[in-house]
UniProtKB/TrEMBL annotation:
Residues 216-410 form the Tyr recombinase domain. One of its GO terms (molecular function) is DNA binding. InterPro entries: DNA_brk_join_enz (IPR011010), Integrase-like_cat_sf (IPR013762), Integrase_catalytic (IPR002104), Integrase_DNA-bd_sf (IPR038488), Integrase_DNA_bind_dom (IPR025166), Integrase_recombinase_N (IPR010998), Phage_int_M (IPR053876), Phage_Integrase (IPR050808). Belongs to the 'phage' integrase family. GO terms for biological process: DNA integration; DNA recombination. This is Integrase. It comes from the Bacteria. Pfam families: Arm-DNA-bind_3, Phage_int_M, Phage_integrase. Keywords: DNA integration, DNA recombination, DNA-binding.
Length: 435
């Protein structure tokens, strides 16, 4: 059958009549002209045969030229064994699916959050009850968020994470790099658990590759170093309250963070005890330290130095306790390997023969000295407020060994008095009293 039977001029001259007009243009293309009383509109249809069946499809074209192009497309589909009616349905479904995908992508785009947003959510949900929450916030604000904060969470890659840790390694704070990697991993796993992202960008980074393997610290100050420390402290430029903190940590085996948060009300002068509440204790267990005369003298001294009715170590405006890291930073700043012109003249004032030491090493040193004085290991563990690792012992052996602990602390205090004499205590130390 010849195609295009109707000329363009003839098509333009079609006039609607009182009845429907059906006109063939060839190749199965049919022109349908509605009667005058129905508006006389023109539409196009294609008649074709597939799989032995005669079928018709209404075309979308609005002009004869468009109808002929559409006819040719459909006739080619028929040659390929495709039914135009089915193909049109499939195309409609494909379009619908594409629209749904676009809507989903748009929703995902609108739902994208930055690392800053994720960090706020993580701290408000996962960290809400963590004792080190404020310290984690400080570390992220200093070292993580300036690098990652403005990135969308789903755009963070391994390279972004190592950019943070590498900067810390360059500064020489390898352990801090490992700590922050662990914290970033916790935050991104929090995001995975909540379908914010699909994969954790820290997953393939091994802690051992960041700053090397962890080395268990075993530094202790021997008795000669303790005596030398007492001689060096007066000229070290340390705050007097920090000097007290050093001797309290050594004589009570406390953690420096527990001491930083201590209140005057925690000290009972009559019972000679220091009660560390569970909120201040690292393991969440309240702890009572039986103060030796040596330790109590340091608390007496602190009383006259604190200037606060509440805190032993107040911050600048007495509104809270001092930062947990304050004492450690003061001590660390007086053991620098290199003397810089702009640094304090006391930058090596606390260097000891056997190398760098930290406030936590004082806790270990006091425990070691207890052991050398013949105190039993289980008593020392109680003094340290360690959690019993053996589950059976932890459940069934509930004895507190309070008397043994009190004797242990007193024995340690007496040895320190013997080692140091009055080197670590001014002559005008006052009895501990309450306001």
């Amino acid at each position: 059958m010849a195609l295009n039977k109707i000329s363009d001029a003839a098509f333009r001259n079609f006039k609607p009549s009182d009845n429907v007009q059906i006109i063939s243009d060839g190749g199965g293309l049919i022109i349908r002209v509605r009667p005058k009383n129905e508006g006389g509109s023109v539409s196009f249809m294609l008649s074709y045969r597939i799989e032995g069946k005669q079928r018709q499809i209404t075309l979308k074209a609005k002009s004869l030229k468009e109808a002929r192009k559409e006819r040719d497309i459909y006739k080619e589909q028929v040659k390929q064994g495709k039914d135009p009616i089915l193909e049109r349905k499939l195309e409609t479904e494909r379009t619908r699916q594409q629209q749904l995908e676009e809507q989903e992508n748009l929703a995902k785009l609108n739902a994208r959050i930055t690392v800053n947003d994720l960090f706020i959510r993580w701290t408000e949900i996962d960290l809400i009850n963590r004792k080190d929450r404020q310290e984690i916030i400080r570390m992220f604000n200093k070292d993580v968020l300036p690098v990652l904060g403005d990135l969308f969470v789903e755009d963070v890659r391994k390279g972004h994470i190592t950019q943070v840790t590498d900067a810390l390694l360059v500064r020489g704070v390898n352990r801090m790099a490992k700590v922050l990697l662990g914290l970033m991993r916790q935050m991104f796993r929090f995001a995975v658990d909540r379908d914010i992202i699909e994969f954790d960008p820290t997953a393939s980074i091994r802690k051992a590759k960041v700053g090397g393997k962890d080395v268990e610290r075993d530094r202790t100050l021997n008795q000669d170093e303790i005596k030398q420390l007492a001689q060096q402290l007066p000229s070290s430029g340390l705050m007097q309250s920090t000097e007290c903190a050093i001797w309290i940590a050594l004589s009570t085996l406390c953690r420096i963070g527990e001491l930083s948060k201590a209140k005057h009300s925690d000290i009972d002068i009559v019972a000679k005890t220091w009660k560390i509440p569970e909120t201040n204790s690292k393991n969440g267990k309240a702890h009572v330290i039986y103060l030796s005369n040596f330790s109590l003298a340091q608390f007496n001294r602190l009383k006259s130095l604190s200037g606060s009715e509440t805190w032993l170590f107040p911050n600048r405006d007495n509104s809270d306790h001092v930062c947990d890291k304050s004492i450690t930073k003061q001590i660390d700043g007086r053991q620098t390997k290199i003397i810089y012109s702009h640094r304090s003249k006391h930058s090596q004032a606390l260097v000891l023969p056997n190398g760098k030491w930290t406030p936590h090493d004082l806790r270990r040193s006091g425990a070691t000295l207890m052991g050398k004085l013949g105190i039993q290991g289980d008593v020392i563990e109680k003094c340290l407020n360690h959690t019993e690792e053996n589950k059976v012992k932890r459940i069934y052996q509930r004895q507190g060994l309070e008397e043994e602990q009190a004797a242990a602390w007193q024995t340690l205090g007496e040895r320190l008095n013997l080692l140091l004499g009055c080197l670590c205590l001014p002559n005008d130390s006052l009895p501990y009293t309450f306001s």
